[in-house]
Write a structure and sequence with these properties.
Alpha-Beta Plaits, alpha+beta, globular, 2 domains
Length: 175
């Protein structure tokens, strides 16, 4: 089975550095196959013979913490789940402009909060368009507000077991 691991909080602002070559080598040492990293922000595509995603997540988190010396939360999706997301293109109806940023946030578990959609931040810069299973589809207009404010809204609503990627990264991960 091909899986995609989204690692939270690595290589951000010079903190929690994880060299991608080291990450690939460690994962290969741990028995994962065809390990590839995409960009420098903790996106890993790999093959695995196990099928229990929560068990794989927990095992990976423990191994990564031991290998790199700090906790690294992991959220897994199957390649098929990401392919379905990209095929469905939840942003297809959005009229793009240079200040608009498109995001998908991945939750470790199904959210236990219900929000009215679309959710719009107080400054109208950030919108949550859709919550699909454990994925949150959102967009940010940087002409009206800051990314950090949108991410803070996500954490307030869904907790810290979340990691966010821009839409272009999601497409690259699938390729």
């Amino acid at each position: 089975m091909t899986l995609i691991a989204f690692l939270r909080g690595i290589n951000v602002g010079g903190n929690h550095k994880v060299p991608m070559a080291d990450l690939r080598n460690k994962m290969a040492d741990w028995g994962f196959e065809n390990v590839k990293t995409i960009l420098n922000s903790g996106n890993v595509v790999f093959d695995c013979h196990q099928t229990n995603l929560p068990t794989i997540e927990t095992t990976l988190e423990a191994q990564l913490s031991e290998a790199f010396g700090f906790p690294i939360p992991v959220i897994l999706r199957t390649k098929e789940e990401i392919a379905d997301l990209v095929r469905d293109n939840p942003f297809g109806h959005i009229e793009m402009h240079t200040d608009l940023r498109l995001y998908v946030s991945f939750l470790k578990t199904k959210p236990n909060v219900t929000i009215s959609l679309p959710y719009t931040s107080d400054d109208s810069s950030f919108q949550i368009l859709e919550v699909r299973n454990c994925d949150v589809v959102s967009m940010l207009d940087v002409s009206k507000g800051k990314t950090v404010n949108g991410m803070n809204d996500l954490e307030k609503l869904f907790g810290k077991n979340i990691t966010t990627r821009n839409w272009n990264t999601i497409i690259k991960v699938l390729q």
